[in-house]
Design a protein that fits this description.
The chain is α/β, with parallel strands linked by helices. The protein has 14 helices and 12 strands.
């Protein structure tokens, strides 16, 4: 055993681990000293220089400024598929390894939470749930005002037919919807019609987004894309906020080109003053936009499973360095 390993690796964890906190990080217990700190950017900036490994929270940006302070950091572990909370290029330039869950397909296939949440957002939109519930709490029993639309017979468009896209499509067929999907890979699932991006936009009554954020997909739902959509479309995004040109979405919502949107993600969700985010400002005054705080994957099963898996993955990585 090396001298470094004898004194144990130092790991900073600012993931809240609010479920089963005492057991989630057990795989690290024998090889690491773990410090739990609040998920705050200023605190991360102040302390990151003391650690060999960082078990990251997606609620805090690990940007170039933080990484420049990480003088001895070897690895960042994030129990998520997305890494847009980390400046990956800057980390790799410093020789810091990034561990994520993006290609842990066997594990991810056991999690349905985000696909279920996409449907939660869609159903809330088509049945006016937030507004009608608020009215009811204030004693207003207004059935006609909050009449919705049914989904049977409508066309569900799925952008990205990976794990989550497939789950969303399967549920759509259960609602007796016509399901079309756009993906770079050939789709062989029965009952799903594969279409190109333009056809997806023009034929979908509902568009559910399930692609990764890359340079190529950033702002993929642009002003031009919204203009090509069927008027009155509903847009659901549980992937990453930056996939959508948010100013274009606001314009489309105001003009009714987009009848409604359900978002679990927004660009800049790490901001300290989210109340002034343009989408949140709009949602305060309009019922056709529903926003939830990136809770798509927040179920007991997915939270605990992902974090335990990542703790073991980090432990294995640190062990490989000895």
């Amino acid at each position: 055993m090396s001298q470094r390993n004898a004194r144990k690796w130092k790991v900073l964890c600012n993931d809240e681990l609010w479920f089963e906190r005492d057991t989630v990080l057990e795989p690290l217990a024998d090889i690491a000293t773990i410090d739990h700190k609040e998920a705050r950017y200023d605190l991360l900036l102040e302390t990151i220089g003391e650690y060999d490994a960082y078990y990251a929270s997606a609620s805090v940006k690990t940007d170039k400024r933080v990484l420049n302070m990480a003088k001895q950091l070897k690895v960042i572990a994030t129990p998520s598929t997305g890494t847009d909370h980390i400046d990956v290029d800057a980390a790799r330039a410093k020789g810091i390894t990034i561990l994520d869950l993006a290609k842990e397909f066997e594990l991810l296939d056991t999690f349905s939470a985000t696909a279920e949440h996409a449907w939660c957002l869609l159903l809330a939109l088509v049945r006016n749930l937030p507004a009608s519930f608020e009215a009811t709490k204030n004693g207003h029993w207004e059935r006609q005002k909050y009449a919705g639309v049914q989904l049977m017979g409508k066309t569900l468009g799925v952008l990205g037919y990976g794990r989550l896209g497939r789950m969303v499509a399967e549920i759509g067929r259960g609602f007796r919807m016509n399901v079309i999907a756009c993906d770079i890979k050939k789709i062989t699932t029965g009952g799903i019609r594969q279409v190109d991006f333009n056809t997806l936009l023009s034929e979908s009554d509902v568009l559910s987004v399930h692609i990764h954020l890359t340079r190529a997909t950033r702002s993929m739902l642009s002003k031009d894309a919204f203009a090509r959509m069927k008027r009155g479309i509903l847009v659901i995004n549980t992937s990453r906020g930056a996939l959508i040109d948010e100013s274009a979405l606001l314009e489309a919502l105001r003009s009714k080109q987009v009848a409604g949107a359900g978002l679990d993600v927004i660009h800049g969700e790490w901001s300290e003053n989210l109340r002034e985010h343009p989408l949140i400002e709009y949602a305060r005054k309009h019922d056709n936009l529903i926003i939830t705080p990136h809770i798509g994957g927040s179920t007991l099963e997915s939270i605990v499973g992902a974090r335990k898996f990542m703790a073991q993955k980090l432990a294995d990585y640190l062990a490989s360095l000895t």
